[in-house]
Structure formats: structure tokens, C-alpha cells
Amino acid sequence: MSSIADITTFRVPPRWIFVRVTTDDGLAGWGEAIIPKRAKAVVGAIEDMAANLLGVDPSRIEDIAQRLRRGAFFRGGPVLGTAASAIEQALWDIKGRRHGLPIYEFLGGCVRDHIRAYAWIGGDNPADVVEHARQRIAQGFSAVKMNATPALPPLGGRAIIDAAAERIGALRDAFGGTLDIALDLHGRVPRAALKPLLAELQQFHPMWVEEATLPENEESLKVLGRAAGSIPVATGERLASRWDFKRLLDTGAVDIVQPDVSITGLFELEKIARLAEIYDVSVAPHCPNGPVSLAASLQVGFCAPNVVIQEQSLGLHYHQGYSGLPKGEMHDYLVDAKPLTTMDGAFRPLDGPGLGIAINAERVAESACDWHLPDADWTYPDGTYAEW
User: Fold this and answer.
1) pLDDT (tens digit, 9 = 90+) per residue, 271-311?
2) Given 2.60.40.10, 3.30.390.10, 3.50.50.60, 1.10.10.10, which CATH number is that of 4-100?
């Protein structure tokens, strides 16, 4: 029987946390954690969990995942969730490599031939989004996402709302209905400002409005549903389990859920997708992350029919030396970029074993460094802290 021999964490540019699990018979699998602004806490959590796993059978993935999430008595939250998720992804990678199969074959097999993807345009304070969208269209994408507004105060933000409408209107003027546009509010719009903002945005028929309320403000979702009118409501990137998503789905106010595989774990993402299917809710997995996270997310996407589109981070503004971090791109750590390269704006099945990608371990080891991503310092004009 094989057993876990080593679990090592690597922090690499631009802001990624890779985890390698090695077995005593020489197999290695890779996972990816997120929460880069709390990177040392995440690495510490992984080290704590790893101390309990040496000598354990790596094939017992569900048992290990249950123990990692429940065994310390205190549980839940993104830091513990992402630490457990990274280890669990690596275990699935090992299982697939041992049996010579992609992970989706263990979860029912393929239900589709490709998964549509979307790309980011603009930045935290989006300006010339039309030119950026034109570049994305040239790359083959027919769907994009942008931050809709900077910090928007509860009252007196009319100029910001008008500017947001002007930017989105410019996209519609340039591309008509040929481009799907998702709008991310990042939880930064207070409830009092949502109604006037969404009233302006409806005319542009967004693909969805994302994180219009903070995850702890579930009571605002029904108000949001009425205010959004015909705009589909999407949320869920900060939630960690199917229990979190059940509470969200039970509100009846959400049209698209957006679990992140590096918070939920791979198998939990699949379970959340099946749960959402019961509610006739679509899944658009959150993934502005690195290559391992994307590969893990796609493994679920190819076996879950209600996954409608996949986020990916190639060219994302966070990777271009954001906040003083070194530059980096998703393909930098792959032996072969083809499995995570879109064709006509879509991913094809990752048919290699495990996660379907090969990580360049030497490049990871050479690039590892102790980077620090500072907290955002967003405030309103009066100095009070604003949601980032």
C-alpha cells in the first residue's frame, strides 16, 4: 500500500501557492491554495494539516478531506478551506496518475466536448475597457468580465454610477449583442446604492451581476433580486461548502453560483454543482487563480452539465506586477501550455492523467520566493474603510 511521504508548499510569482504531495512509491500530485493576502497563514495551515497525513494512504481522498475539515474541532472559513483544498487536489492528481485517467473519469465521465471561457478586461478602476475587450475578442473570447465600479458610497454616488453606465454603454455601442459582459461588484456596493446602480445597468443586458452583496448579507439577496430585474444574479466565490451554498440556494434569489475549487475542494465543487442542479441554478466556477486551480476546476466542469462557463486568469491585471509583486503568468509553470490554452474562447477536455497538466517542478522550485501581497487600502472620502 502506498502512503504519503511528503507535502511541500511553494509560493511563486505572481501570487500563487502551490502544494506538492509525494508518495513513498514516487508519485507526485499538485494542488493550489489561494488567499494570497494571508499567504503565511495558509502555508501554516497546510503545514499543520500535513503533519497529520504522513504515512496515510493517499487513495482515501474523501476520508482525508473529511478529517482535514473536521478534525481540528474549529472548522470552516477560507484559510482552512483553501489549505485542505490544495492537499485534496494533489491527492486527486495522484489517483489519476496512478490509474492513467483524468479525474473527470472518476466522477461520471465527460458530458461535453468543450467549456466556454471568459476573460477579464479593465482593472480595479476600469478605464478604457473597449480597447481591452477588442483584444480579448481577437484572442477568441465572446464573453468578458469587468469590475463595474470603484468604491461606491451608500449615498451621493451618482457620478460614479453614471461613469459605470458610460463604460458599459461604450462596450455595447462598440460590440452590440455579440459580446457577453459580466459585471463584478466585488461586494463593494452598499445596499442603498444597489437600486440606482442596477436600474442603470439593466438597459445593457449584462450576462450577470456578480457579488452584488457580501456573503454575510444573505438577507439582502431578495431585495437584490427585485432590484436586478432581468439581470441574472451570480455569487458564491467566498463560500466553502455545500452547506453554505444550500443556504444561498434556499433564498431563491440566485441564478448562478460561483464556487472556487481552491476554497471548496475538487470533490466538494462537484457536489455543489449537483446540488445547484436540483435548484435549476447554473454554475460558473470562480478561478482568477493559477494553473493547478484552473485544471482542477475544469475536471469538474467536464463532468457537470450545469457548469455553463469557466473563469480563467490569462492576462489578468493582478499578474502584471500588481502591488509590487513580480510578474507571472498561468503558463509559466507548465511543461506544456496546450491543455490550458483556449481555442475559440473555450477549453477542450484535459485528457492527460490526474489533473491533466504537467507542472515544471524545477521552475516552481527556482521561482519560489517570500512575496507579500498587502491589503487593499480603499476608503470613502470621509476616511471610513470601503469594501475592496
Assistant:
1) 999 999 999 999 999 999 999 999 999 999 999 999 999 99
2) 3.30.390.10
- 235/358 Cα distance (integer angstroms): 31
Exactly one of 114, 205, 286, 319 is catalytic; which is it?
Answer: 286
Higher pLDDT, 118 or 222: 118
Give me the architecture of the 105-358 domain, per CATH. Answer: Alpha-Beta Barrel (3.20)
Catalytic entry in 99, 132, 186, 317: 186
For the stretch 15-44, pLDDT in tens is: 999 999 999 999 999 999 999 999 999 999
- For 327, other C-beta atoms within 10 Å of its C-beta total 11
**What is Dmax (Cα atoms) for the chain?**
65
Give 96-112 pLDDT, tens digit per residue.
999 999 999 999 999 99
CA distance 323 to 341: 27
Q: Catalytic site residue 286?
A: yes
217, 222, 224, 230: CA torsion to nearest 10: 150
Residue whose cell numbers read 507548465: 334
User: Rounded to whole angstroms, how far apart are CA atoms 45 and 39?
Assistant: 10
Pull the grid cell for residue 125.
Answer: 478602476
Q: Do domains 4-100 and 105-358 have the same CATH topology?
A: no
Which set of grid coordinates corresponds to residue 6? 511528503
pLDDT at 367: 94
Contact between 259 and 272 under an 8 Å Cβ cutoff? The reply is: yes
CA distances 355 to 62, 96, 158, 378, Å, are 17, 7, 47, 37
Q: Which helix (H) or strand (E) holds 204?
A: none
* pTM: predicted TM-score of the whole model, two decimal places: 0.95
Domain definitions of the chain by residue range: 4-100, 105-358
C-alpha cell belonging to residue 327:
510578474
